[in-house]
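Lecture 7, part B: from sequences to assemblies.

Below are the input chains for today's worked example.
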Amino acid sequence: MSERRATEQGPLEDSVVSLNRGLWTGAFLAGLVAVVVGGVLARYLAVNVPEWTADGGAAELGAAVEYPVYAIAIGLLLNAVLALTGVRDRIAVGFRTEFFIKTGLVVLGATVLLSVIVRAAGPAILQGLLLITGVFAFTWWFAGKLGLDDKLRALLASAVSICGVSAAIAAAGAVRAKREQLAYTASLVILFALPSIFVLPWLADLLGLSPSVTGAWLGGNIDTTAAVTAAGSIAGEEPLQIASIVKLTQNALIGFVAVGLTAWFAFKVERSSEGAPKAIELWHRFPKFVLGFLAASVLATVYAEQASAANLEQFESTIKVFRDSFLTLAFVSIGLEFKVTSLREAGWRPVGVFAAATLVNIGLALALASILFAGFTL
Amino acid sequence: MSEPITPPSADVDDARRFALSEDWLATIAGLAVVALAAAGVITADWIPL
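Predicted structure of the full complex, as structure tokens:
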């Protein structure tokens, strides 16, 4: 009977499956509506607050606050309201930060000339390799000193050194981490990314960094891609372009780290007999939206050569509006996804590791960006 | 009687698979926006705010 139940489904099971599917779809749509409502509100405030404050004492502040600030603040506010009403966890499946940020980044590719990507690729790859190696090694070592589990060490080191939540997911697949370890690492990434979105652009301004060095620094040290884009948007158009190129380079390196971790855990930690990972794994783990970013840049560069001035102007304004809309939805989702409960359960040691690794990341990225992107202009 | 055959616990693998399919979806959606904007089918007015 057990085998029949496991391999076939009767009418009752079919009903349960379709009910579950219906509930999932409803939850997904409800979550999506929450994100879109937050996004519309954020855009409304970003457009109107400068006008409302234009004649008063807060004119400078009103004009200076960029749309990512409104989007994240509204996301956090909605998060609190939905959590209080007990709805948040049930509709969280609709908070698709990764989808919105990746789509926004592909569209953003159309605002970056191919020649800029080609010129920035060399320093971006070198910075990525040095940063990932240095920060990963430090985090792995320090987490070991504090006695953390090897799988959690791998997740924390990947998240802080490569690209936040996406890297943690890839690493979790590679080392077969527990679900709670992944949830915990993702919460840590967002906890540290949120203040960096606002503090680091301000610090870059205070330090008098050039737009390119600012972009390379933000792209190199802020963990998660969405937060890099938010900080870049606050810092300006040029820092945003360089930050995106640098971060996408790190994203592209994720496959190598995931394959390396798979092999390391198979041979050294768990000594399993599954053998070495196949080369195709590199392709499986490669973030495909990086190709979309490049393709969009190629498309826009070719289009710019052929289009009339009026058509080009319309194209550029359309791309920017759609790019900002997708990014706004991503920033609202970041605020909605933030959750502190899993952090409480894991104790202070992983937080200490992540904090120390973040400081090392900030310092090393600043040094590398200042050297590799000195004198770089768009 | 053997035990029920249940799929292996693969929360993380499922998360990875979904993230990757979402990856392709985002790539296609983003490129579609760029192509439609280049063709003049969609314009900035489509987003009212």
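Note for the exam: Residues 97-372 of chain A form one domain. Keep this in mind when comparing with the next example.
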